[in-house]
User: Fold this.
Amino acid sequence: MEKIVVRDGKAQGVALENGEELSGRLIVSAMDVKRTFLQCLDRNDVPDSFYRRVQNFKIRGSSGKLNIALDGLPTFPALPEGSSLMHSDMHFIDSMERMERAYDDWKAGTWSQDPYVDMVIPTLNDPTMAPPGKHFMSVFVQYCPHEIDGRRWTTEEKDAFGTTVLDQIANYSPDFRDLILHVEVRTPQDIEDEIGITEGNIFHGELTMDQLLFNRPVPGYAQYRTPIEALYMCGSSTHPGGGVMAAPGANAAREILADLKRPNTVPENFGDD
Amino acid sequence: MKTEPVHQGRLESPFYSRLKALDTVNEWHQWKGYTAANELYCADTEYFAIRNATAVFDLTPMTKYRITGPDACAYLDRLVTRDMTRLAPGRVAYAAWCDDQGHVIDDGTIFHLRDGDYRLCAQERHFGWLQTATIGFDVTVTHESDDVAALAVQGPTSYSVMNKLVYGGLDDLKPFGLKHLRFQGNDLMVSRTGFTGDLGYELWIDPSQAEALWDALFDAGREFGIRAIGTDALEMARIEAGFIAVYREFLPADETVRSGRARSPFELGLGWLVDFTKPNFNGRRALAAEMRNGSTWRLVKLDIEGNKPAGDAYIFPKRSRNRHSIGFITSAMWSPVCKKNIALGTVRAPYGKPGDTLWVEIYYQREMHWSRKMARAVVVDQPFWLPERRRATPPGPF
Amino acid sequence: MTELAGGKWDAIVVGAGHNGLVCAALLAQAGKSVLVLEAEQQVGGAAVTRELTEGFSVSPCAHLLYQLQPEVCKELKVSPTLACEDLATIALSRQGNHVRIAGNAVTGVTGADAEQFRRFRKRSLRFARLLRGVLNRAPPRLGTSDWRDVLSLARMGFDIRRLGRDEMREFLRIIGMNIHDEVTERFANPLLRGAICLDAVLGTHLGPRSPNTMFTYLYRLAGDGGRNAVPRGGMGMVSAVLAQAARSAGAEIMTATPVRQIVVENGRVTGVETEAGELFSSYTVISNADPKRTVMRLVGARHFETGFIKRVHHLRSHGNAAKLHLALDGLPHVDGLAFKDFGERLLIAGDEHYVERAFNPAKYFEFSTAPVIEVTFPSIHDESLAPPGKHVMSAVVQYAPFALKDGWTEASRQRFLDIAMTTIAEYLPGLEQQVIASELLTPADIETQFHINGGHWHHGELALDQFLFVRPVSGAAQYALPLDGLFLCGAGAHPGGGVSGAPGRNAARTILKRERVR
Assistant:
């Protein structure tokens, strides 16, 4: 998809990269708000004040990802052999100061030298994800900036970031390093390049007070509608935000159905009392 | 990196080997991290050991805190609603403690072991609250649940059993008194306390001496019908005694989320524990306001017609159900010793005054089919079971 | 039992800080018999003037007047004499390209920045005015059905709504924001960004990226539209004027009379006992001391309930601002600074990163190695502070955490003094050669000398979770503590610190109103 086509102040369809144009009665963007309005629309189609708001919407990448293929199951001396905790989400955090210092590195424009990781070995719960006896480790890392000192990452820097994380894991699992078959390193920049989320921020925008509720993504446009007729938003840039919870999508569907004067068929009211 | 393996799984009490040897039904549950027996052979038979002979219950998983330091008394006095300055060494007090809103966090017993040295015993863990309450006091709170093995020895022949075990010296031990004795050269603390509403004792000893104590106790008790029991039998005796239990009659205030789900001491029939003549204590302002404005809830003891236990039933003010329910049953049973269908419940004030007649809606199942019965329930004042021997000193041999 | 009856005095105020004096004066004006007890020889608390060395005087704690509420001056009929009504702010550059901010105007930056600043400032002042209305009222209690609380809350909502739809949205957006994001959105000039960041974090344990630093920035503007005045005779003069107002209204002030404890009998306050063992009785005791000192030390945890004590215990009240005072033989020549420019507020805060980096060590209980500094030379406006031709400097130096990792020692104080002097010399070269005498007060010194727990000039961190209904803690935000007869009137109470008189005035009004209700 290349552009959202707007004519007479109304979204008419989308233009594909291959030149094809698809028309639609409504266009609903699941992309983040910056990508939607700063990249996929003509500057002239977006009102100035809204455009400026979107420019100032904060989507700063802060986390990296390592996907590691392993020849066998690493051991963690902190856990008894065969511990069921290995099936769980594992963190290496022993002080708030280390976490805070990890953030200081990010503020200074580089990745954390002593990062903290959030790590799972999904193959323990679902062995079909790897050949028999092998394992896969998914590692979420903070902090990792979108850019290094305001410029793109170099290959050397990306490798160094990966090494920092692998060293951290090896600190807690002495046999881990010998089991590595393959490592895939994803910086926020890679996430942006591959998935298309601005700055690779997994929440499509920071979850701070100024970007929540009636302020998300932009004050006055927190109800999934946009200044452009027939164009809606349903991604994580909208209320309530990121996380695989589908709430922005469901909320958007409800608003759109109301605008279409159709009955609300979106499931709701799951609370107990 | 320093690594210490994490302990996983249930703990075994120091009496576990003895319980396991007596166990025939393999019915266990988890109690504060320990594995504990629901019943060992038959809950009903075990229940009759409490009322007719001597029952032995492993209390070790009970939560125990040691409270020491120059401000220990002042600390406890601010913590609980009772006057702790009047609790002499060698005495035990039943007490409740509240949050700032006057809602009960838990109830339990406070043992004044020696001058300025206390043990607080409760069903639930409260280290966070007890630790928070130390701010501004020169006092130390230590969690010692795992460091003290404890047995409840309860029933009409328990005095005889104990006398044989410790060779006398218990004649002057009054209810809520405690004594430091020796057992095979080690310290043994005996208190005249319990959760059965009957004559009984609780024994407190170092875990290393637990098995020896158990063996000696069962030797001493053989001729008096001693039996080990599980929690099911104890629960029956508890209801007959009219004692409240956490998660049945109330929730710890700090675990409630919805407003109106916590209870004040007045609402649990514990008004007699609240002492406005002493200085400040947690909940004082809120409880004083409740005294002025009236309580929302009232705990009732109900004598219900028929023989169908009224567990979880709604309570109505009239026989016809075309009015809203005013409360619900929290604990219920057919009492073999009282020959009555009894229950504890919580109703909205002003309903539930002693002597009032209320109605409970009992559902019961017979061969898959459900039936419903509206049963008359009379609010009673006294515990259902209150034998003379519970308070007699000395209790006398059986 | 009524609040102001019984005992010898209608009310006793513990501490003659400026808020204690304002509170005492207003109660005395209402015809109450009021006794003020002050530990030190002079009144004023943290708003005092004292000799640094022979012939040189400084305001050793608070040094600028920017928040004194006009309501206070009007009701007490006082107007402190000002040596200078409004200092400009100069963000210092090592290269001499200083940025100068005076009111809405900023020079030394691009036209775009200047225009952006004018808009930013205008909007900030509008929001600060809204905040000002909040400062001068006791906060409503939440969750009650009392019509006064409901009305007060509704008024707050109405004031916000009255901003207009767009401005209301903007207010609700930025109030929880950090100042770093705000300045990087708006300004290109690093010195301008740094200066605004510094104003937002002065006196707090916050860095530019910390939450709600936009709020702390607005709070600073909320007093007197962001004007920074220099009172003639130092801050002590302001306190002296307030003390005079209290005395002429009939209040009695006893200095050099430290209070040992506030006496509690039968669950209510009945008076105070001094260190000398003297008893003064009153059913109304108003503490100008900080909440922690009042509750934990002067009364004692025994007399409060656990949940409340926990909240007081966890009140964040560790100061980070050190004060540096210099007696100077003269002023150096600095590129780009005229003589009269030394009379303005000079800021050392290179950019937002510089301020954030200065803050980083404070999180780990270490002091900044490149601190941010607010420098003033009050003697330029007020010759009474120094001998002719000579000068005094008074500076706030951040960050110097109260709970330094290894504790404050003579050696660590000297090390931080050296760091501060080196930093100043980079921006004001030659100043170090003019020094006749110097003094550095760490937050630990401020605690000892001014009796403020943690040495925090707000008596408790200024943050949205310690503001309004929850300042200092919930259950005590309406000046009355949960102990009959005991009140707070200092910076720890709503709205907070700064020489504003607002907590003292609000406390007095609350106490008088309670009496009327009864």
The CA atoms of residues 240 and 247 of chain A lie 7 Å apart.
